[in-house]
Design a protein that fits this description.
The complex is a heterodimer of chains A (about 400) and B (about 240).
Chain A (H helix, E strand, L loop, with lengths): L1 H15 L1 H37 L5 E6 L19 H9 L6 E16 L2 E10 L3 H4 L4 E4 L4 H6 L3 E4 L1 H7 L10 E4 L2 E9 L13 E5 H8 L7 E6 L5 H15 L10 E5 H44 L1 H9 L4 H38 L7 H28 L2 H6 L2
Parallel strand pairs in A: 3-8, 5-7
Antiparallel strand pairs in A: 1-9, 1-10, 2-3, 2-6, 2-9, 4-7, 5-8, 6-7
Helix pairs in contact in A: 1-11, 2-9, 2-11, 2-12, 9-12, 11-12
Chain B lengths: L4 E13 L4 E13 L3 E5 L6 H8 L7 E6 L2 E2 L5 H11 E4 L11 H11 L4 H14 L15 H13 L5 E5 L7 H16 L4 E5 L2 H4 L4 E6 L2 E6 L16
Parallel strand pairs in B: 3-8, 3-9, 6-7, 7-8
Antiparallel strand pairs in B: 1-2, 1-4, 4-5, 9-10
Classes of the chains: A alpha+beta (about 400), B alpha/beta (about 240).
Chain lengths: ~400, ~240
């Protein structure tokens, strides 16, 4: 009964003093909203980076020609002339290599593609039928390069979705149509599913042809740009790396690994680099969140201290009229709880809304960590209530006449 | 007729201490006020009259001496018990009115009843009755910012009366309002006094003090003169006021 009256009176007081209430709520909204938005943005970015790396395919080893010291991942080291199709076949068939699941030899170069009036310059990759399983891509329509295509050196091509859209902008089905690659006619047999990525990392702006066709008819090269290898599981990556490495050293008649004319990079190397990156990201984020919590908290503290101090005379009057200490403290506590609750809810809505709009605009993931919401709410509400209660309690403990005279 | 004692002050002193010096605000003051009296306490600023008023109002405690208000020994009480005494036995009227801003006059007058535990249904009825008595029955839902200083002081009088206290304690009640409105306030005080209310009024204005039946002069923390049976100046009576 008494508590209901207190709540009603607190509510009336808050409504009557709109400016004061509005400012206090604003302080809390900004404190909570900014923490949620910042943490959410950071986590979304972190997750995007991780996802893009994961999308490259797990269990993946990449053998590139050239020295071990080369930092290239794939594609960029196409100039080396140490890896052959026979190396790839040997890895697949050798009895010493037990941990390899599949092997995809690749030769990639840029070439001009033409379909009637449209043309594009894109990455043409000579592949075998093993490519889709190793590099985790799949075909959207039609079919992929087959073993027969590789053996028969046929002139067929599978387009990436971006390439298909560039060559056939009217939306017609490319499968069955004929395009020209460096003036040789190729029949389109399939289009792959989009894998995302953009700019230099765009994995949709490609065209796949049989490896043999690429070597003999398009680029006149007997070598490979790289060999992608999928290990049987993530646990045997190191074994796979060693087995492949020693096999290739033996085949290339090289005595010590230090003199190897190729390099093997595993996905786990990339992942560990990436997790170091995201680790520093997490540290940065925690710092930003901590700072915004402090800034928000100080804002809330100030507005509560000012508004409650300003009401010291009112507290004096209420005491003079017979209000007991407990009633006054309860009233201010209830007001502070209402302010922080309303401000907290608005802050959460705004913080989440801002993160959502940001994710739409930047095309990143929309992630809200319940932990961040809870942390922001508990800290801000705690500060709001503490600094609503503390000055009220101090004023309630003054002699009423001191409170009445307070300037 | 046997007189009942409303206020019994004996040997009260109040000493303010700072690190540098001691200031004696009240020095061994003793007097009694009977129920039904209208007393003006006069004195120049710094005389100790405000300190006396704070002690009479149970807003502050004396350094020494005893104070019995309506049969209760005040200086021994705890803070919460004092709050209760202020609520039930004293009706305050302040120079600066001290109404809650942006709040209707009805709610302002209902406030002491909330602290006094008066049932909700009764609060509005009582508040309305006393607001009508001070001539503001038609403005119940005006907020305090919408009415004049004199009207605000009348709201404060209604607020002081709702708990039917043993004494009305007015601190410079006309200090912040125009003289015509001051006359109104004095008229209300005299009407209330005629109806049996005990009124203690602090003022430094002789014109205002002359409305009382007894005038106590304070100077340098001591009572210098206690004029009983003073012939009061009768304030111009407002026709609509009745108790």
């Amino acid at each position: 009964m008494e508590i209901i009256e207190l709540i009603t009176e607190s509510l009336q007081t808050l409504i009557r003093n709109k400016l004061r209430t509005g400012l206090a709520i604003l302080g809390i909204v900004i404190g909570i909203g900014s923490v949620i938005a910042l943490i959410s943005l950071g986590e979304a970015t972190q997750r995007s980076v991780q996802d893009q790396i994961q999308a490259l395919g797990s269990n993946l080893l990449t053998v590139s020609p050239g020295s071990q010291s080369s930092g290239a991942v794939r594609g960029a080291a196409g100039g080396g002339t140490t890896l052959t199709y026979e190396d790839a076949k040997a890895i697949m068939s050798s009895a010493d290599v037990t941990t390899v699941h599949n092997v995809s030899p690749q030769l990639s170069k840029r070439a001009q593609l033409t379909a009637s009036s449209n043309n594009t310059n894109t990455q043409v990759i000579g592949v075998t039928e093993a490519y889709p399983s190793v590099n985790s891509i799949s075909v959207e329509s039609g079919s992929f390069i087959t073993n027969q295509d590789v053996l028969g050196m046929t002139k067929v091509v599978v387009l990436g979705p971006t390439t298909a859209a560039t060559l056939f902008p009217d939306g017609s089905d490319p499968v069955g149509q004929t395009i020209r690659i460096n003036k040789n006619a190729f029949r389109v047999v399939g289009v792959t599913v989009s894998k995302g990525g953009s700019g230099f990392a765009n994995r949709d702006d490609v065209a796949f042809v049989p490896l043999t066709t690429a070597q003999k008819q398009l680029f006149g090269s007997n070598y490979l740009s790289n060999i992608s290898i999928s290990a049987k599981s993530a646990e045997v990556m190191t074994d796979a790396q060693n087995q492949v490495g020693y096999l290739l050293l033996a085949r290339h008649k090289i005595s010590t690994p230090a003199k190897a004319d190729f390099s093997i990079i595993s996905q786990s190397d990339i992942l560990s680099t990436a997790s170091q990156t995201t680790g520093s990201f997490t540290a940065l984020l925690s710092g930003v969140a901590a700072i915004s919590l402090i800034v928000g908290g100080i804002g809330i503290m100030n507005i509560m201290l000012v508004t409650v101090n300003e009401r010291t005379r009112e507290i004096g009057l209420r005491k003079a009229l017979g209000a007991k200490k407990r009633i006054i403290i309860l009233q201010f506590l209830i007001e502070a709880i209402m302010l922080t609750f309303v401000g907290g809810v608005i802050g959460i809505v705004l913080g989440v809304g801002f993160s959502y709009v940001y994710s739409l605009l930047s095309q990143t993931l929309f992630i809200i960590s319940p932990y961040a919401v809870l942390l922001a709410f508990v800290v801000s509400a705690g500060i709001g209530i503490l600094f609503g209660w503390y000055p009220a309690s101090r004023a309630a403990n003054l002699q009423p006449i001191e409170a009445l005279r307070y300037e | 007729m046997k007189k009942q004692i409303a206020i019994d002050v004996s040997h009260i002193s109040k000493i303010y201490k700072t690190e540098v010096m001691e200031t004696v605000a009240l020095d061994d003051v003793s007097f009694t006020i009977d129920k039904g009296e209208f007393v003006a306490i006069m004195g120049p600023s710094g005389s100790g009259k405000s300190t006396l008023m704070h002690i009479l109002g149970a807003l502050d405690k004396p350094t020494s001496g005893t104070y019995i208000l309506d049969g209760e020994n005040v200086e021994k009480l705890s803070d919460d018990e004092l709050a209760d005494i202020r609520n039930r036995k004293i009706g305050f009227i302040f120079q600066a009115f001290n109404l809650l801003p942006r709040t209707t006059i009805l709610q302002n007058v209902m406030l002491p009843m909330r602290y006094g535990g008066v049932p909700v249904e009764e609060r509005k009825v009582r508040a309305q009755k006393y607001l009508e008595m001070v001539g503001l029955g038609n403005r119940l839902n005006h907020t305090t910012n919408q009415i004049s200083g004199g009207q605000q002081q009348r709201v404060a009088i209604a607020r002081a009366l709702v708990m039917t206290p043993a004494m009305l304690l007015a601190d410079e009640p006309t200090g912040n309002i125009a003289s015509a409105q001051a006359e109104e306030v004095m008229s209300i005080f005299q009407t209330l006094n005629d109806a049996g209310h005990t009124i203690v009024m602090i003022t430094h204005e002789p014109d205002i003090a002359y409305h009382a039946k007894r005038i106590i002069h304070v100077r340098d923390g001591k009572i210098t003169e206690d004029l009983k049976n003073h012939v009061r100046t009768v304030a111009k009576k407002l026709t609509h006021l009745e108790t």
